[in-house]
Write a structure and sequence with these properties.
- The protein is an alpha/beta fold.
- It has 2 domains: 262 residues, Glycogen Phosphorylase B (Rossmann fold, 3-Layer(aba) Sandwich), CATH 3.40.50.2000; 198 residues, Rossmann fold (3-Layer(aba) Sandwich).
- It is 39% helix and 20% strand.
- The protein is built from 19 helices and 20 strands.
- Helix 12 links the parallel strand 16 and strand 17.
- Helix 10 crosses helix 13.
- The radius of gyration is 23 Å and the shape is globular.
- The model has no long low-confidence stretch (mean pLDDT 97).
- The structure holds adenosine-5'-diphosphate (ADP) and alpha-D-glucopyranose (GLC).
- Adenosine-5'-diphosphate binds next to helix 1, strand 15, strand 16 and helix 13.
């Protein structure tokens, strides 16, 4: 038994409720609370983007470096929604108009340096501690933005163990080798089994080769990453480290995503409120749908298979289905969604944008949530769907395959089905899945059994938090 709680420094570019562009932020924001019950105290280090600088005013300064890649860097410590947050204030890097990664004219040209600075501060804190004496036992880096943190730590000779978590291997932090010195990387480490990556550098690869342990956000994705189509160039690196790679499924915050707390509250044992939520959603989206009302809440990108929706809609609509879409992203996909709504008025309706409150109303009121991803490290929306009895129709990849029990004859006979999975990710398989959705929805007995199963499926953090804690425990044993 340890005398004090273990300490872990989480390094990431996003964290709910401070800043979110995707599921990474949800996970980074949920881990501290989930781990506290497991004997681990987590602090989250992230950049003080312009929108967060006011937040740090009045907080204690706990770390300073006069030249953090071209200007001063300061870390301010405070608490937000119960999370111990460390904001890295470096105005020359983060005090800019726009999002965390891009401004009005696209991605910031110096993103390699911006997130190397975050990683540098993370490694320095892990090595030397903060001015209040807090020093982590473990450094935990998330995605390419924090990839250099385990590397800086390792190259400085510090013996602090580190974990690198892959939330999405498609983003690799690639930058030209000419940046080697600017990024404060040791030139003798530039060779194929170390920092070199297709003639350049990748912050994610740097993290993968130097961290003590590697995790990703579902067991299936952990296995998929060793294959070229999913590893996306890093499959060899993953394979070489197979003994240190594990998949730990994300959870969702069931206090935030709670049907009991919805505008029209309902639960597995008292599902009546869901009908009211559905009616309200139809009114809000101007829809009149006799069959299953499907929803999509997603970044509109190639990863998410959004382009597969238009080809399957005509049949789905003709059989009584309807669709409400909330998302933003690729302008071409946004245009396709608008065209779809124009083609099927009263049956398909779209909101382009980002709207957290609306997404809650959609999960509450929908009958099914569609997630036709080409790859999906974990995915959170199918888990919200389960929890709200909004049955997931998902491609059988990554975390989608790990969380949904498909309604095949065996699962139906055993009474355990929670949704529909399909494979491969193409319009033919997706279309058949939607036909299956129509049929299952029409059978009220089966449908209510599936809703019941889905709403009882454990989607919280308990199991996964225990697995992270066990991983950390192993590193400091
Ligand atoms: P990814 O991180 O790849 O985008 P996830 O499923 O892990 O996919 O997480 C996406 C998160 O972002 C979920 O919390 C989802 O509800 C939310 N989200 C995505 N698009 C929107 C949107 N347009 N409005 C509100 N929430 C959104
Ligand atoms: C990434 C993945 C998504 C995952 C999220 C949180 O954004 O695309 O599948 O759920 O990270 O780990």
């Amino acid at each position: 038994m340890r005398l004090r709680m273990g300490r872990v420094l989480s390094v990431a570019s996003e964290c709910v409720p401070l800043l979110k562009t995707g599921g990474l932020a949800d996970v980074v924001g949920a881990l501290p609370g989930a781990l506290a019950g497991q004997g681990w105290e987590m602090r989250v280090l992230m950049p003080a983007y312009r929108s967060l600088r006011a937040q740090a005013a009045g907080w204690d300064e706990m770390w300073f470096e006069p030249d953090l890649f071209g200007g001063p860097g300061r870390v301010f410590a405070g608490t937000v929604a119960g999370i111990s947050v460390l904001l890295l204030d470096a105005p020359h890097l983060y005090d800019r108009e726009g999002g965390p990664y891009s401004g009005p004219h696209g991605d910031w040209h110096d993103n390699d340096i911006r997130f190397a600075a975050l990683s540098w501060a993370g490694a320095a804190i892990a090595r030397d501690g903060l001015s209040d004496g807090w020093r982590p036992d473990v450094l935990h880096a998330h995605d390419w933005q924090a990839g250099f943190a385990p590397a800086y730590l390792a190259y400085s000779g510090a013996d602090v163990p580190s974990v690198m978590t892959i939330h999405n291997i498609a983003f690799q932090g690639f930058t030209p080798v000419s940046q080697l010195y600017a990024l404060r990387l040791p030139p003798e480490q530039y060779y194929p089994d170390a920092l070199e990556y297709f003639g350049g550098l990748s912050s994610l690869k740097a993290g993968l080769i130097t961290a003590h342990k590697i995790t990703t956000v579902s067991p299936t994705y952990a296995g998929e990453l060793g294959r070229p189509v999913f590893g996306m160039g890093l499959q060899g690196v993953i394979a070489a480290r197979a003994a240190d790679v594990s998949g730990i499924l994300n959870g969702v915050d069931t206090d935030v995503w709670s049907p009991e707390a919805a505008e029209h509250p309902f639960s597995a044992n008292a599902p009546e409120g869901k009908a009211q939520a559905r009616a309200a959603l139809c009114a809000e989206f101007d829809l009149d749908v006799p069959g299953p009302l499907a929803i999509v809440v997603s970044r509109l990108t190639d990863q998410k298979g959004i382009d597969l929706i238009p080809p399957v809609m005509e049949k789905f609509i003709s059989e009584g289905g309807g669709l409400a879409i909330l998302g933003s992203g690729d302008p071409a996909l946004e245009a396709q969604m608008h065209q779809l709504a124009a083609r099927f008025p009263g049956r398909v309706s779209v909101r382009i944008g980002y709207d957290e409150a609306l997404s809650h109303r959609m999960f509450a009121g929908g009958d099914a949530v569609l997630v036709p991803s080409r790859f999906e490290p974990c995915g959170l929306t199918q888990m919200y769907g389960l929890h709200f009895g909004t049955l997931p129709v998902v491609a059988a990849v990554g975390g989608l395959a790990d969380t949904v029990i498909t309604a095949n004859p065996a699962a139906l006979a055993a009474g355990v089905a929670t949704g529909i999975t399909f494979h491969p990710t193409d319009a033919a398989a997706f279309g058949l899945a939607l036909q299956n959705l129509i049929a299952l929805h029409a059978d009220t007995k089966i449908w209510s059994q599936m809703m019941h199963n889905a709403m009882h499926h454990p989607v919280g953090w308990d199991n996964s938090a225990a697995r992270y804690a066990a991983l950390y425990d192993g590193l400091i044993a």
